[in-house]
């Protein structure tokens, strides 16, 4: 996923490739400000970076409107405001950059639209975000093709917003398309497929397409298990979906099997303490009771009680 800092770095990489050698770069006031701004941003000094980018933008205002340095300056200011959690200000500069990019026929407009969509999503303006993401998708398809990896990235952002809106039929279709694109690009077992499969599965659960949900979630789990340890949040999301859909299908033993894996994954991620770990143990105990295994269920409930106590005593 391309973040705002990634875009800033990409813009500056273009600048540095087109610019003169280092001494000449420093001699040029705009280059010096822009380079110092990127260096400040990269070391986490975002407010200092914003000041430098604003100065660079003021300098760039003296150039022709179609000068790439004007657009780069606007984008870098927007990036800095975004990193400072000022989406209202970031929006202003993204919109101006978009206007100039449209006039110039700049293909990087797709990147800017995607970032603007993320700003709208952060502001809770889901409707606007959907419109901008769909615009970006249409443009990248016309430039690079429907199966380009970046198309899948923008689709992922669109899918997240549609999920938040509860438009689960659309979510399932969007993530299905992401899976297809990544299969073509990376192969059928690539790890980048697993998050998309999981979210497609969760969307299927929401619209009661439980058999389809079980299929894609199991496929996601196979991918996660085939490689290095996956991010705990992603693995837990996949396993939690499998527990839920197994229960919906009346597959109690299968639900218990996946819930045990949830317990193990939670223990690895957070340790055997705290309310969340205790909740997972208690859910596993409930499933064991449904299977008639009261002895092990009692053991799980005892472990859950200890986990809650350990969580309380570990608080500062």
Low-confidence stretches are 1-21
Averaging pLDDT over every residue, what do you get?
90
Distance between the termini: 36 Å
Secondary structure class reads: mainly alpha
Classify the helix fraction into a percent range: over 70%
Please count the beta strands (DSSP E, at least 2 residues each). 0
What form results from the Cα inertia axes?
A: elongated
What's the Cα radius of gyration?
Answer: 24 Å
Number of helices: 16
Element-level helix/strand string: HHHHHHHHHHHHHHHH
Largest sheet: none
Which percent range describes the beta-strand content? Answer: under 5%
What would you say this structure looks like, in words?
This protein has 316 residues and is an all-alpha fold. It has 16 helices and no strands. Helix 1 runs antiparallel to helix 3. The longest helix is centred in the last third of the chain and has 20 residues. The protein is elongated and about 80 Å long. It starts with a helix and ends with a helix. The N terminus is likely disordered.
